[in-house]
From TrEMBL:
Annotated gene: LOC107269093
Organism ancestry: Eukaryota, Metazoa, Ecdysozoa, Arthropoda, Hexapoda
EC main group: oxidoreductase
Protein name stated in the entry: Fatty acyl-CoA reductase
Family (UniProt): Belongs to the fatty acyl-CoA reductase family.
Organism: Cephus cinctus (Wheat stem sawfly)
GO BP annotation list: long-chain fatty-acyl-CoA metabolic process
Reaction(s) catalysed by this chain's protein: a long-chain fatty acyl-CoA + 2 NADPH + 2 H(+) = a long-chain primary fatty alcohol + 2 NADP(+) + CoA
Length: 512
């Protein structure tokens, strides 16, 4: 097995060795797939994996957002310039022949497809992977509902007309049902409908500042935000459609995605607004205190998630029937390989200390506490007060103060983040484990996704290396200089800590 993993850098060789025994790879032979949102981390990994490891795939239709400034061919060319496709370009230079770029907009009727593109999809596509989603951080209620609910409805409307469609796959989230403690691989009831969605969008549009917090909380009920609410409704719509359609429907629920473990490059990631951005702040010394319970938080490497999704399509082909309810697969770690935020932070900080970044602004240390008021006090002392002092010096030097503004911007979504750091969920993955048990030894290697065989300790190095090189954009050739800078940051940290302790001791002595 170890020898096989070493071959992952040269996938041409591994495919030659594993081709005969790969049932999943053969399953995708001569098939046509349509995917939305190829630019997300998961979308990019799925596209790369299909083109590299399923080389007998007939065609891959990719939906590129219509930005109005570039042709779809230019969008495609720019997209495949990403480092994620380096191995693919080197080993299979003619992969472009399998790609059909489509320009569209999920917010428009018929997703703004041209007549030819729509007919092409209807006549040929065998599988649809609907991966597009609005983010829960930063997006408005209107944009979240329009994309996650109405956009999904529009894709389903096209799917209903497809003559050769076998399976429709919706990429949801395990947190679509975060109002449940035990999140099982089943469908959950939903009290909302499309009328409520249209009313919410209208209200959010008409009000200058959007829906009021009180009104939103009343509508959402047990849901913490519009994102989780929208995902739950989208699942309900898909299930209703599944019972009336001539194709299978799969709801794939991943948990929080982290940098890749092995493919397409170890540690591959984007700088996004999700958990990756939080870990960037921790490793660069920008975040020093976190309020979080000492309980398992559900994280998964993004490449294992992509493999699990592709394997679930194969599995659903013989475990599910048409005209039935949607088949649900959860993909998470909390029940089989649990990890706490404290543990993964410690592993990551140790890796970052061994190979520091030039972009570190302070020694990286993190105090994680279960007590909200202790966190609040530490946050003021460690984050707010220093930022105010820096702004004060900036004003004295006639410079624009930016530290407090930057802090406020960085913590704008803090309330939402803290909800997920302090909740307790058990993500059940029995169906996914059964899928892994059904996979051949070859497929277990080629589409590795069995989280039971995963070790967080082995993941720390690729995790940090990926953050450093791809998200922080700090190449490894700066390592020697970075170590020298990190040494100075450590000295400055210990001097500052000593000064604070002396000051506190002095204050205490004065009151004794």
């Amino acid at each position: 097995m170890d020898e096989v993993y070493k071959l992952l850098k040269d996938d041409t060789e591994i495919v030659e060795k594993l081709d005969q025994g790969s049932v999943i790879r053969n399953f995708y032979t001569d098939q046509i797939i349509f995917i939305t949102d190829p630019t997300s981390l998961l979308g990019e990994i799925i596209v790369e994996k299909l083109l590299r490891c399923c080389s007998q795939l007939k065609k891959l239709y990719i939906l590129f957002k219509d930005t109005g400034g570039m042709t779809v061919q230019d969008e495609m060319k720019k997209y495949f310039e990403s480092s994620a496709f380096d191995t693919l370009r080197n080993k299979i230079p003619d992969f472009y022949d399998k790609i059909v770029p489509i320009k569209g907009n999920l917010l428009a009727e018929d997703i703004a497809l041209s007549g030819n593109d729509k007919n092409d999809i209807i006549d040929n596509v065998n599988f649809i992977i609907h991966n597009a989603s609005a983010n829960q951080f930063g997006d408005t209620v209107k944009s979240i509902l329009q994309l996650n609910v109405l956009g999904t409805k529009r894709i389903l409307d096209i799917a209903k007309d497809c003559e050769n469609l076998k399976t429709f796959v919706y990429v949801s989230s395990v947190y679509a049902h975060c109002n449940e403690i035990d999140i099982k691989e089943k469908l959950y009831p939903c009290s909302a409908d499309l009328k409520i969605i249209h009313d919410m969008i209208a209200a959010d549009t008409e009000n200058k500042n959007g829906l009021s917090k009180a009104a939103l909380e009343m509508i959402l009920g047990d849901y913490p935000d519009a994102y989780t609410f929208s995902k739950a409704i989208a699942e309900f719509i898909i299930d209703e459609c599944s019972k009336k359609s001539n194709f299978r429907s799969v709801i794939f629920r991943p948990s929080l995605e982290l940098p890749s473990y092995k493919e397409p490059i170890a540690g591959w990631c984007h700088k996004d607004k999700g958990p990756i951005s939080g870990f960037i702040g921790i490793t660069l010394g920008a975040i020093h205190t976190i309020w979080a319970q000492d309980k398992a938080i559900d994280f998964i490497p993004s490449d294992m998630c992509g493999n699990a999704l592709l394997a679930s399509i194969w599995d659903a082909s013989f475990t599910g029937e048409k005209h039935e309810e949607a088949i649900v697969y959860n993909y998470g770690s909390s029940m089989v390989k649990p990890v706490t935020l404290r543990k993964i932070t410690n592993l990551l900080e140790n890796a970052a200390s061994d190979r520091p970044s030039m972009k570190m602004i302070c020694a990286n240390y993190t105090v994680i506490t279960k007590c909200y008021w202790l966190w609040f006090l530490l946050n003021v002392m460690i984050h707010v007060v220093p930022a105010a002092i820096v702004d004060g010096f900036s004003l004295l030097r006639s410079k624009e103060p930016t530290a407090l503004t930057s802090y406020c911007e960085a913590t704008r979504n803090l309330e939402s983040v803290q909800y997920f750091l302090n909740g307790e969920w058990r993500v059940h993955v029995e169906k996914m484990q059964q899928l892994c048990d059904r996979m051949s030894e070859t497929d277990s290697t080629l589409f590795y996704c069995d989280i039971r065989k995963f070790r967080w300790e082995d993941y720390a190095d690729p995790f940090w290396n990926g953050l450093r090189v791809y998200a922080i954009d700090d190449p490894m050739d700066s390592l020697i200089e970075a170590k020298q800078q990190f040494y100075k940051l450590r000295i400055r940290h210990y001097i500052s800590l000593s000064a604070v302790l002396i000051f506190i001791s002095y204050i205490i002595i004065q009151f004794i």
